[in-house]
Amino acid sequence: MSVEVRGAKLQTQAFGDPSGPPIVLIIGMMVSMLWWPDRFCEAFAARQRYVIRYDQRDTGLSTHDPQGEPRYSFSDLADDAIAILDGYGLETAHVAGMSMGAAVAQEVALRHPRRVRTVTLISTSPLAVEGLPSSTRAYQEHSRSAEAIDWSNLEDIADFLRRETAMLAGTRHPHDPDAASALIARDMARAPSFVSATNHFTLVSEERPTRLQASDIKLPVLAIHGTADPLFPIEYGEAFTKVVQNGRLHRFDGGGHEIHEGDIDEMVQAIIDHTA
């Protein structure tokens, strides 16, 4: 199903019975809804939840702007989630985000609190919280290698993403490079202009309003975080229990910055309990 939003279209997919409690999933930077694994979504549907995942702007089958010319802001991405609710005729929903998608989810909760039941934040950073540790040195070195990438070249981008998935893997499970490569290839083949996804780089460097602070979220918040996340060390997940009044943390010992196949059942159960 495609949803119209202020001059753009967002491609969505729903799982489960529409009469069940709805959960809207917001994925992270540069990737489409395919990075919410099918089994992850199907597991919620099997537990009588109605799950909606969608391609954010410049990913998948949603509207793509020219590379380097995004016609939207980070706040627009938050408003897009509400447009998804409207498109499905939902007054409220549980909202879950991963990485940059979880930053969007925080903004959704702050800008539209009456439309959100609970918030689940996977592998992310709390808005406007300072003093948290840097990414690991290895990840910083990997990140700097992006400066040498030709971001108009699909094979260069694919190679970077393959290295990125390996770098973001934790120690809890062996990294599966074949599965990662297959997902990257599937995502790139599906998008009419995959290079447009690099517009998300502009968004993460965008200076957001200082009034948007995680500490102002009054809704129930579940942070899910791996203790071996190289991008956002575990202190980021722990921060939600300190700055958010109704914040809780579910740790994955040795977990990285990923939704690993081996963690799906435990992660789904944690979210089911949180949204009950």
Please characterize this protein's 3D structure:
There is one protein chain. The protein is of the alpha/beta class and 276 residues long. The chain has a single domain, classed as Rossmann fold (3-Layer(aba) Sandwich). The chain has nine helices and eight strands. It has helices at 38-46, 74-87, 100-111, 137-144, 154-168, 177-190, 200-204, 234-243, 264-275, and strands spanning 2-5, 8-15, 22-26, 50-54, 93-98, 116-122, 221-226, 247-252. It has an eight-stranded mixed β-sheet with strand order 1-2-4-3-5-6-7-8, with helices on both faces. The protein is globular and about 45 Å long. The mean pLDDT is 96.
Considering the chains and any ligands shown, give keywords for the structure.
eight-stranded mixed beta sheet, Rossmann fold, 36% helix, 276 residues, 9 helices, alpha/beta
